[in-house]
Design a protein that fits this description.
The protein is built from 18 helices and 21 strands. By secondary structure, the protein is of the alpha+beta class. The structure holds beta-L-fructofuranose. Its EC number is 2.7.1.5.
């Protein structure tokens, strides 16, 4: 029996971590060796304009520091990196980074989504890519960046995890699960959609060759090799889209499951064997993201805990900081269904005063404005639970599938009130956990590439997660009719 020891780098929209894992027959154990902030930075660029950036060099530094700890404490089989999707860095012909990667919440894409839909045709884009229309998609970002100095000078485009792997190994490529989120990939052929790329005015030579999860990218090289102790250390492609890795580690024991990958975003949907690209799916804006082992994630992005995170940040900036666990306890006691919003309203996407935007949405729908922090949190969590229910039902209807259980994985699975409300809203049991599903999925794919025992296919991987990780079950309490009434307020 082979036990694989691997390091997973997992970057979320608000923090990153390096996790050391051991994966073998009946064993899946993890140690967090580093955790660091991932705070976007807004910088001026003259004439009152600004840009929202990721601090990608700071992230690379923190990753290396974490990997140094991991490689000093164990003999590593490999390293794998996943992160949020759609964002990228541009390299010049000498392989140097051209500017700082721009955050998908930056306003440069304002209005561009409609323009792209109109000029290229929404039906055509969807028929090829199967991807939901969101302003954050790489396609939209690239059209927004057309004719900029950086894009004109660029000779390759690397998505964030691919960029970091390039800095570790010197090898360029595009891991396919993350590449699918660009809205530039042919979802059925698992290849770049060259015709669409050209039609969008994107230089096709920017896009590197695709790689599948499990492929070896290369050995840690150059300065990174010296920093990590000088040994031979492979970097392996994982499901480098964090959501792809998270769904690998859903501890399901049935195929009739739905999921919420619950972090800054909530990704709500089903796993399918093949994409469902239909007109009804397009109008409902359902996406077909590519998963590990040829699977499809049929889902929608629900705006997620971003509404809560950004509210907390707004309060802290205004000198009214709130402590989350106390706030959740108060929210659990707050009046139910006082006000409900649609979390997917595009007005909530950009950074800024979230409580004010939520209050405005309540006013517009004739509902009381949340007055206390607890009322606002209650409003956010009930609104999310309703959005999960709506999205799960749509996913089932559009794909002709049924589910018996809803898995909530990721950081949000710790939020008991949210899990309970979701079980009540959906009327099926919720299984919450693991919190670190993404890192686990990352580790499992690496372990399989290393020839590890007990991780042959997704079913085996999930059985291992179910046998080793803690989960919590929430039975529906029968309050579904209250949710029905609340849902009608938004019709
Ligand atoms: C989740 C996620 C979503 C993606 C969003 C933006 O972390 O990767 O799947 O739609 O971030 O990249």
């Amino acid at each position: 029996a082979v036990t694989a020891t691997c390091a997973a780098v997992d970057l979320g929209a608000s923090s990153g971590r390096v996790i050391l894992g051991r994966v073998g027959a009946g064993e899946l154990s993890t140690t967090e060796v580093a955790r660091f902030d991932n705070t976007p930075i807004r910088i001026a660029r003259g004439a009152g304009r600004d840009r929202l950036h990721w601090n990608v060099l700071g992230l690379y530094r923190d990753i290396l520091a974490g990997l140094r700890i991991a490689s000093a404490s164990a003999e590593l089989h490999s390293i794998g990196i996943d992160s949020w999707a759609v964002d990228y860095g541009l390299l010049d012909a000498d392989g140097e980074l051209l500017g700082n990667p721009i955050h998908y919440r930056d306003s440069r894409t304002d209005g561009v989504l409609d323009q792209v839909r109109a000029t290229l045709g929404a039906e055509r884009i969807y028929a090829t890519t199967g991807i939901q229309f969101m302003p954050i998609n790489t396609l939209i970002q690239l059209v927004a960046a057309r004719d900029t100095a950086a894009l004109t000078a660029a000779s390759s485009l690397l998505l964030i995890p691919d960029l970091l792997c390039y800095w570790l190994t010197g090898q360029r490529g595009a891991e396919v699960t993350n590449a699918s989120t660009t809205q530039l990939l042919d979802v059925r052929r698992r290849e770049w959609a060259w015709e669409l790329v050209r039609a969008a005015g994107i230089d096709e030579t920017l896009l590197p060759p695709l790689r599948e999860p499990g492929e070896r990218i290369g050995l840690v090289d150059g300065t990174a090799r010296a920093e990590l102790g000088g040994g031979e250390l492979p970097v392996v492609a994982v499901g480098s889209h964090d959501t792809a890795s998270a769904i690998v580690a859903v501890p399901t024991v049935t195929r009739r499951f739905g999921y919420v990958s619950c972090g800054t975003w909530s990704l709500v949907g089903l796993e399918l064997d093949a994409p469902v690209v239909s007109e009804a799916g397009r109008t409902a804006n359902f996406t077909n993201e590519l998963g590990v082992d040829g699977t499809t994630r049929y889902l929608r992005n629900v705006m997620g805990l971003w509404l809560l995170q950004e509210s907390l940040r707004t309060w802290a900036d205004a000198g009214r900081p709130a402590e989350l666990s106390g706030l959740l306890a108060d929210a659990a006691r707050a009046e139910p269904f006082r006000s409900i919003v649609d979390p997917d309203d595009p007005r909530f996407l950009a950074p800024g005063d979230m409580p004010a935007r939520i209050a405005q949405a309540c006013r517009e729908t004739g509902q009381p404005v949340p007055e206390t922090q607890a009322q606002l949190v209650r409003c956010v969590l009930e609104s999310l639970a309703l959005a999960y229910r709506r999205t799960l039902r749509q996913a089932c209807a559009l794909s002709g599938r049924e589910v018996d259980v809803l898995h909530i994985v990721g950081g949000g699975s710790r939020n008991e009130l949210l899990c309970r409300l979701t079980a009540d809203a959906c009327g099926i049991p919720v299984v919450a956990g693991p919190v670190e599903a993404t890192a686990l999925g990352n580790l499992l794919v690496q372990a399989r590439a290393a020839g590890g025992s007990g991780v042959g296919d997704l079913t085996a991987m999930r059985a291992l997660v179910a046998a080793t990780q803690e989960v919590r079950e929430y039975a529906p309490s029968g309050a579904a009719s209250d949710f029905d009434a609340a849902a009608r307020r938004l019709d």
